Amino acid sequence: SPKPVEPLNPKRKDSPML
Known about the structure:
- The protein is low in regular secondary structure.
- The chain is elongated and about 25 Å long.
- The termini are far apart.
Protein backbone atom coordinates (compact mmCIF):
# COMPACT_ATOMS: atom_id res chain seq x y z
CA SER A 1 0.00 0.00 0.00
CA PRO A 2 1.24 3.52 -0.76
CA LYS A 3 2.75 5.34 2.19
CA PRO A 4 0.92 8.43 3.47
CA VAL A 5 1.94 11.75 1.99
CA GLU A 6 4.49 13.48 4.20
CA PRO A 7 4.32 17.23 4.84
CA LEU A 8 6.82 19.28 2.87
CA ASN A 9 9.99 19.79 4.86
CA PRO A 10 12.76 22.22 3.80
CA LYS A 11 15.22 19.82 5.40
CA ARG A 12 14.46 17.14 2.83
CA LYS A 13 16.31 17.28 -0.47
CA ASP A 14 13.30 15.96 -2.37
CA SER A 15 11.16 18.84 -1.18
CA PRO A 16 10.52 21.73 -3.60
CA MET A 17 11.55 24.24 -0.97
CA LEU A 18 15.27 24.63 -0.38
